[in-house]
C-alpha cells in the first residue's frame, strides 16, 4: 500500500508488527516474518538471544537489523525498575537503538498490564531519550496519560496476551483512537485474520501480534493471511462502510425503468 504509518519520525509501508517468539526455530521465524511483510519486529530481551549469550544462535543472524526495525520489549517484567533496566540493556546491545516496546505486567496468570508501573517506567524512559511504544489496558484515560508523558505510540490490548479472544471492547478502542494524536495499535489478543481486519476497520493505525501467527497450525500461511487482513481492513476504514439500517430494506438494483 502506498499509504504509510509513521512511528517516531520514521515511515513504514506495513502496518503489521510481529513478534519473534514461540516459533520452532529461527528459520521458521524468518519465513513467517517474510510472509507477513512486517518491517518492525519485536524481540523479548529477557528470552531471546541478540548477542547477550555468546556461543548460542542469535536472532540477529536471521533477522539482520539492516533489513528490519527491531522493537525490543520488556516481556516478563513486573516492575518499572526491571523494565527500565531491560531496555537500557537492549539499547547497549543494539548500538544505541531508541525505539522500544514497554510492557509491565500485573500478574503471571493473566499477563494483564500494571498501568501504575507502566506509567512510572514510561516517564523514566521518555526522559532518558527512548521512543516508547507502550502496551496498556484499553482504558482511554490511561492511554491519554501515556500520550501526554511523551510515548510515540499507545498499544491497548484487544484481549489478554496469547488468548486469541479478539477485540472484546471495541467501544473503548474507538474512544482511545478518537482522542489520540499519536498512532494507536492493537496489541495482544488477536487470534484470526478477522480480528486483525476489525481492528483496522475501527481506525487503528496498525496491529502487533505474535501468538496468532506462531501458534497457528501453519504459521507461514497465517502470516500471509494477516498481511492481507491488515491491508483489507485499512482500505475498508478509508473507504467508509455503509451505515447500518435496522429493518430498512434497500434494493441493490435500481427500482426505476423496470422491464414490464
- How far from one another are the termini? 47 Å
Low-confidence stretches: none
Count of beta strands: 10
What is the strand arrangement across the widest sheet? 5-4-3-10-9
What coarse outline follows from CA principal-axis ratios?
globular
| Mean pLDDT level | 90
Question: What is the tally of helical segments?
Answer: 9
Assess the beta-strand content as a share of residues: 15-25%
Largest sheet: 5 strands, parallel
- Helix and strand content put the structural class at alpha/beta
Order of helices and strands: EEEHEHEHEHEHEHEHEHH
The quaternary organization reads as single chain
- Helical percent range? 25-40%
What Rg do the Cα atoms give? Answer: 20 Å
Give structural notes:
With 260 residues, this protein is an alpha/beta fold. Helices cover 37% and strands 16% of the residues. The protein has helices at residues 26-36, 59-62, 80-93, 115-127, 140-149, 170-179, 193-201, 211-214, 219-239, and strands spanning 5-7, 10-12, 16-19, 40-44, 69-73, 99-102, 131-136, 153-156, 185-187, 206-209. The N and C termini lie far apart (47 Å). The mean pLDDT is 90.
